[in-house]
Amino acid sequence: MVFSQEQKIYIVESYFRNGHLIDGEWQYSIEACFEEFRLQFPDAALTYNIFHLNLTQCIQIFRETGSVDRKKGSGRPTKRTEEAIANVRQVMEEVPRTSVRRLSQQVQLSTSTCHNILKKDIHLYPYRLQAVQQLLEADYPVRVEYCHWFLNTMNENLLNWSFFSDESWFYLDGYVNSQNMRWWSSEKPNFFEQVPLHPQKVGVWAAISRRRIIGPIFFNGTLTAVRYREIIQQFLEQLHDDEIVNGYFQQDGAPAHTTLETLNMIQEFFDRQIISRNTAIAYPSRSCDLTPCDFFLWPYLNNSIFQHRLNNLDELREAIVAKIDEINNNPQMLANVSTGIVGRVRKCLEVDGAHFDLLSHLHPAARQFCRSTYTITDITIK
């Protein structure tokens, strides 16, 4: 049992209060102190032996220091010395991506001591690596132009009616894991690691607006133009009248998306309100950070559905359908995703079309909602 300050003071007072001078020598009754303590603190669960041990320590500290507080310098000597802190700081300044285990080996300290030095003395914190697609020099002005158009055109109503679409691949054997990628810094660093896209096994297509998701629509094999038009046909059959009349439709510039026959099919419904390649409104290449399927939906699904083991592809499809149903039943989540699109567009303009910090543009309350509700990783999973 750990005694509080109040209890320690009472123990000392009770000890001396129950003292008697006998033949010129003070005699103290620990039993009497124990009984008084139990009456004063009836909820304290302790035995006589534990009380005796703590009383002895309290009296010894009081006689030596005049206080019931632990005397200065007592306890286990710290290993977080100035020399140790300096060594840790030097290693982390030279190689910020050093793991705590490797740091422990280099400075000859335990991992727990290294953790304490990093957080309590140097004030460094681990940040997850953001894996994003590489931007080419020609991409920057196109991204800027698109962001200007978006801010000048899109409003809340249009976001309710407009759909941002994409396809992704899911698989049973695992997914991109950025948990073991850390960069230790006193401030959040602006660093990225470029990763290639790689083929998967289960194809999923979806389109998301501010008020609902249409999908998932599953497909197998390579996404050809014919197969993509079959998906689009299923999508068009589920649109509401206001979405057809007022909304925009966004897709990336994949070859299957932009054949003449495919674009003509989409234009029959959306006219010139198409955001894609070879259309009046050009969607910038390699810009997964600006479309909600890539910065929200696919990472959210991957982080959710693989928390439990899936034994076959049917279970995988069922898990994807269930998670998308959950999102559709959470209008606040969908509204926050649309808020995230606008914030990302603004942030992209601030950095002239370059990569940007993912959450810094959000209000703190919205940022906390995003972190607690879904994980935004900007890892493109294709």
Automatic annotation (TrEMBL):
Gene Ontology MF terms: nucleic acid binding
InterPro entries, per database record: RNaseH_sf (IPR036397)
Protein name per UniProt: Transposase
Top-rank taxon, per record: Eukaryota
Organism of origin: Tenebrio molitor
